[in-house]
Amino acid sequence: MCGIIGYVGDDPALSVLIDGLERLSYRGYDSAGIALLGEGGLRSYRAPGKLERLREVLPTTAPATVGMGHTRWSTHGPPTAANAHPQLDCTEEIAVVHNGVISNAAALRSELDGHTLTSETDTELIAHLLEEAAIGGGSPVSQIAAVTQQLAGSYALVIAYAGDDHLYAVRQQSPLVVGEGDRGSYIASDVPAFIEHTDAVRYLEDGDIAVVGPASVSVTNDEQRVSRSLHRIAWDPEVAEKGGFAHYMLKEIIEQPDAMRQSLSGRMDPSTGTVRFETDLGPLSGVGSVVLVGCGTSHYAASYAAAAIEATGIPAEAVVASEFRERPHWDPARTLIIAVTQSGETADTLTAMRAAVGRGYGTLAVTNTVGSSITRLADHAVFIRAGPEIGVAATKTFSTQVATLLLVGVALGEATGAQSRGSRRRQLAAIDALPGQLQAMLDARAAIDEIAAMAAGASNHVFIGRALGLPVAREGALKLKEISYAHAEAFPAGELKHGPLALVTDATVVYAMLMPGADPARTVTNVKEVQARGATVVAIGPADRWRSLTDWGVDVDAAETTAPLLSTLSLQLIAYEIAAAAGRDIDQPRNLAKSVTVE
Amino acid sequence: MHAVILAAGAGRRLWPLTAYRPKPMLPVAARPILAHVIETATAAGVDTVTLVVGYKADRIREFVGDGTRFDVPVTYVDQEHQLGTAHAVAQAAGTVEDAFLVLNGDQIVDAAAIAAVIDSTAEQTPVMAVTSVDDPVAYGVVAVEDGFVTAIDEKPTQTTSGLINAGIYGFDPSIFTVIEELSPDVAGELSLVTAIERCITDAGVAAVVTDGRWVDVTAPGDLLTVGATLHREPAIDETASVAPTAVIGPGVTVAADVRVGPHAVLSGDVDVGANVTIGPQVSIEDSVIMPDSHIEAAATVATSVIGQNVRIGRATVMEGRGGGGVDGVDPVVVIGDHSRIGPAALLEAPAAVGVDCDVAAGAHLRDTVADATRVVSR
Fold this sequence. Notes:
heterodimer; A: alpha/beta; Glutamine Phosphoribosylpyrophosphate, subunit 1, domain 1; Rossmann fold; about 25% strand; globular; B: alpha/beta; Spore Coat Polysaccharide Biosynthesis Protein SpsA, Chain A; UDP N-Acetylglucosamine Acyltransferase, domain 1; 2 domains; 33 strands; elongated
């Protein structure tokens, strides 16, 4: 959500920082700022709103070769210039940019005497604490270490001192990477911010303080010099460019056949019913039950997988990550906790995972992001290999998350003996058919676009489904509401008559998941209930299920366990088209961020 | 140099293969024609590309993206209605500043021919590449004297020259003015050839005579032969999994994530697209199989083109005839995307099955089946 970019090098910093902020903008933000460290001292520029507003207050060129930038997503205080980062101390000689939340901010604020506070941010407190520490003298690293000892919560910090041509980077439970290139060093919350300059990165760890110069990076942790290994980023940042599509979201919807092929590549053999991941899943044979934790779209992917795993006879449930700690405990000796997070940085999921590790559960992370925090926290990790996803609304990462989790389910079924070889072979054959089936649904897009055009005027959208169709109904409603801002809700089909039916009028569109094997006759009864109240019904499922019921339908031709997953593609396209017709900011919906790194 | 690549056309003569993809996305050597075109262009010195897209444009956008995979920056312009080649070029006016090339996105040519047009374009424009083919009457002939084009005859009644338009042009931005002044032809289209004819009488049109490869795909059966002209190294992708008892001949190209079952035999010129599954004891000879398709056990596929995500049932036999066509009849069996055939069906050339069809077990076909048709056994 918030984004950090820093640069120390040979080139003017301004353009490096602006480019970096542009590349971070997909994370969502509501204000931004830049600090430049040059011969004239420390200069800072801040503005509320989008980067265009910041450009209005920035010089067109500046000679400074050291600087840092920040995109802020408001948590403490509204999005104003005063609350944007960098935050300065009273002397305006220390500047701080910060991702994360300081949980003891109120106590720190009351302890700070004799300082003039100009913002409502917790970040500004850090600048003033650093000012206090500077009075005591000592090296900047020792001063910073003294201040971080007073901080509770999560933070990634970059600190600049006037008259010092280094930047100082600090990490505690909030991601921060340092890049080393030919033209200087880079610091960022996320690799894409500087990937055009270098693919050589070091990931900082909790408690690290890095001193970053133009050609040197030294890292200390708890007063000890430590080394963090150099990684080469293998994926190509340019893949993240829009490539002629109107929105990243549309691009990411349309590339799902490719993303699915890439995700599944080399991982299964349908002829033998075996699954092989390139990473170790850990000991599975003793797993007696599975709990999947995640948030938002990842939670729906987890719900889908839980139902599929439970069908093999292994008890499984999906728990919203932020509710995990309040739930009764399962048996740590027999329960596998699977964390599902696209970014690997979702704060709620990380917190749940820390609790799970603390209680001694075996843990597995399923994520799209190599090197992310969740992979360091969990015992083992599996990657969904969907490629970078820029649109805030998750699309290809949902379908590849589900497919990857289904493969994990087969691996569990094999290791525990819960699933017969024949059943595993059928499941893998169904998964194997997904790339072609996704393409077939894209090729039938004209019918889906007609549905979207019809539904665009509706005031109310209701999604209903059973079994595996239910998490997909929920994901469809989430997708529609998050990018179009239309009112959209999902219910188990049978629950409709127990209350939500009161919402249904002739201005309602009801999306009914008529999935194979999910008791379609009962869902058809629900369809007739809403039709009797004037609602327009969009049916998703095999055409012979709905042709006599409604004119609006999407034909879904796939196996029982994968038809709902395939159906998601049609719901993504409907949401996209409705939002596009309404002129919404589809890739950056209001109030939302790609990766939610606060609890 | 900048290149404008025309990739908006539908290629309807290639039905059913173009029902869901534009002609530049048809596979040659298991890669889209357009990939070969862009790679050849960059090898010849093209450093930026404008793609003119229209019919099924998302297929091209998804594949080419921003050009990173070809190491050349690509921008897109939309030709919403396909109103001729000159109209297509005119759409790119906003992306062009200096002299530029125009290439066809569905014709594979030699890098040397493109490089020769680049050289000539530096001296004068317009430039048109011409090449000799065996049957020029089918393409329209170009008369050349002293290095200049003197006449273009698109519907020649007899062969006055062996040279045809090779579809590589060099222009400067003044061509946009020429195009603006054209009137649509009887089909309502603006033709680039007509624009060039105007230039013959004005400043003159330089002719670059090229020899070497010039590949045009006009019928599905051409896909079986053009791959061999590319002089490529047939290869099996490292992610493919081939059973130890399968036999794969020297002319076979196998793309990523393909699975080949025990005792399968692939011989002759065969291109197998990504993620295809070939079952046990399947026999495939001189055929093209597009991505995601499944060929089930003991099926026989000979001289055939199989679209994407097709399922060929057990023991189905597809028997195209080799050699040249008779009376314009395509001597192959063609199956459109997402169709299901068999099991135990028999398809003989010139059988052509459209997209989204369902052909029942035991059916015997030797004719054309329209899109989305259910064929019961007969």
